[in-house]
Structures are given as structure tokens and as C-alpha cells.
Amino acid sequence: MTSPLSYVELHRQISGDIDAALGDALDALGPESESVRNAIAGLLHHQKMKYPLSVLPLLVHAAETGAPEPAVPLSAVHLLWWTSACYLDDLADNRTTGTPEGLGAHEALLAAVIGGQALAIRIVQAQPVPDAMRNTLTAEIVNCWFPAVEGQLRDLRGDMEGAAREAVVAAYRCKSGAPFAMITAMAAIWAGADSGRIRLWREFGGVFGVVWQLFNDQEDILSGRHEDLRNGTLTYLLACALEEAPPGARGRVLDLVGAARTSEQARHDLTELLLAPAVLRRYRTDLDAFRDEAYRVLGELGGHAAPLAALRQLVDQSAALYLRATAA
Fold first, then answer.
1. 97-123 pLDDT, tens digit each
2. Which of 35, 184, 197, 310 could make an SS bond with 193 (beta carbons 3.0 to 4.6 A apart)?
3. CATH of the domain spanning 7-319
4. Whole-model pTM?
5. Residue 208 contacts by C-beta under 8 Å, 6 or more apart in sequence?
């Protein structure tokens, strides 16, 4: 990489290679697995990612070596993992997103399970790398699922009464931080980085995962979908609102959280409270702190300038405050 690129521009250049890697992995299943191949392909087509974060391992590899292209198989792994996780997340939240054309709900579920696990592992196992590296990369995929599911379970069982920002961050570090830490560590391993740099890349992925979850939470409000409110999800913004609530007002917030599952008016009223100036001031302060943590790790890592600049840009875009306060 000789000139700075945004992550979107990099994806535009290499998306064809990522698609080809996925196609090769599906073709390698052979004619005896035609139904599996068609089901996973259908899920990938249905569950399109709005933001092309499959380039993250490319940027990490380029920061280490100057070349993003060798990490294309890891981008395929990353895309499979998140396609699977997002579909399973929608099911866990009882979210109606439809099923891939030509597939039933149970077929799509099976495709999500095998695509994000077995096929992702097959891609790694097929690579011409030393056995020790192949086994290490495989272990990253397997081990990631445990904290990711732990975070999702904490999400589903959110304790509103004892809600605290620290508890929400702990869940975010699992459900979102763990998969990003997985793929950044895998890219560093793939690039031949030493153990210290692998640890730092894992740390960067973990904090970026928190930042990205905070961005995702904002977008849910800005889009008007309000899926978190419909599901009664304990988000970081909601934890800020509960902590900033004046004495005696916390119960009002909790009542609105319960009613917001089914009431449009309650969702409107709760959104007004979430966007209160004091709440957003706390939220912005913490967003800045997470952004600075990501900057710190990138600063310690160093490496090739262009991909590092793209990573910093990605952090900037993810850690910005897009919500606007309601009238005081």
C-alpha cells in the first residue's frame, strides 16, 4: 500500500478477491454437499453487511507487512463469522428479518451455524501454512465463540435494576470485542508478527469492538428502527441515562424500558430521555476515552503508515457522536 486508503476504498478494490475466496471455499465442499453450499451462499446473499469491516484483517496485515492481499482468506473468515453471528443475533432477539430466498427458517439456521464455524475453520485448514500456525488460527476461531456467546447471553439477561456502565462494557467486550480481537490477532499471526505485537493487535481489536458496538447502538436510534428499545436491551446509552437520572427518576426510566417493547409512545419518551444533554455528555466523554484507548494501542504498534492511517480513520468514524441532544 503506497497511498492512504479509507477502509471503504480498500474494500472496493479487494471485494472481488474476498468473494472469490468464499466461492472457492464453497466449491471445495464438493457435489455431495450441494445443499449446504446453496444454503450458505443464500445466507451470505441475504445477510449483507452494511459496513465492509471484512477489510480489517487486510489492514492489520498491511500494517505489519505493507501488503493487504495475503490476508484475503481471513477476510472471508471474518465475513462468514459475522454473517452467522448477526443472523443468530436476530433470531435471539426475536427480530423478523426474513429468511434467504429459497430457504426455510430451519435451513437458514443450519447455514448460519455451519458457515460461521465449520466452513470458517475449513478455510484456515486449507491454507498452505505451517501446521503450528494453522492450528493456532483454528483455535482462535473456536475460542472466540465462547466469549461472544457469553456476551450475547448477558445481553439477553440484562439486569436493568443493577444496570451500570461497567457491566455493559464487560458484555460489549465479549459479544463484539472478542470477534474483532480474534480477527486482528489472526491477521497478526498470519503476518508473522511476534507475540508482543499479536497481544497488542488483540488489544486493539477488543477496544475497537466496543467502539463499533457503541456506533451500532447510535445507528439503531438514528435509523428509527429502535430495535434495542423493542428488545429491552441494556445498551451503554441506557446505562448512562440510568446513572444520570435525578433522584426519584430512575423508576420512571425503568418503567419506560418495560413499556417500550410494545408502545411507540413509550419508545418516543424513552428516546427523549436517552438524548438528554447530561446523558449525551457522559456518553461523549466515554466515547472519547475508548477512542483514545484505540489510538494508544495503534501508537504503540506503529507499522506501515497508510494502513495505520486507514485504521485511525475507521476508529474516528466509529467513535464519533452522531446523536443530537434534545432540549434541556
1. 567 777 888 898 999 999 999 999 999
2. 197
3. 1.10.600.10
4. 0.93
5. 56, 177, 180, 184, 294, 314, 315, 318
